[in-house]
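Lecture notes, unit on protein representations.

Consider one protein chain, 231 amino acids long.
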Amino acid sequence: MSHPVPPSVLGLRFTAVDARTEELRSAHDVLAEFYVELLGADPLSGLPVDRAVLDLFCELTITAGRGTRVGDIGCGTGHLAPYLAGQGLSPHGIDLAPEMVAVARRDHPGFVFDVADLRELPFEDGSLAGVVCWYSLMFLPPEDRPAAFAELARVVAPGGYLVTGFKAGDGQLRRAGRSTGLDVEFDIYWLSPEEMQQRLADAGYAPVFWAGRPAGELDNQPQAYLIARKP
């Protein structure tokens, strides 16, 4: 069961939200503990491709010399924070769902997590060395993508990097959550790599790496990865 936490504790910075956003937020409040169990103690174990992509992002970010502070955008339970820190970065996680942030703070007390909306990030212009968007952009409806990608460009310093992992598909709307058995549903989009590259280019990013992983035993759909640099 989700337990409300005072806004002063969570660092809320919400304005009024639409019904679709509220549905997504409420669903992920319910899913917080479910994801803790699903991901386990070592969430990147058995995922060498994911680790390789994140390692490349970390090395590029540190080599760029813009600092080590990165935004973990859509951080969920905070499971990436220890890994990013182990590679020399200082992650600051944000997530739309208060319960996700509460779980992240509980399980990873040495890191900073706040509640915020991807479309209105709580960072100053150019204040981050990079941003990690690990399976968090696939919830954006088409009309919200330009503003969201513009925010991802605004907060990163020139020369900084963005990395994203996502389910690759045709961009059509799907409904997710039913398979969890927790009586939640929300919108999700399996985005095409071509659209993702174009969105990043429109926001001012230049792609430096892309890769794909076919559907297999772990996933029933292809996965895609992109790293881009803000000139």
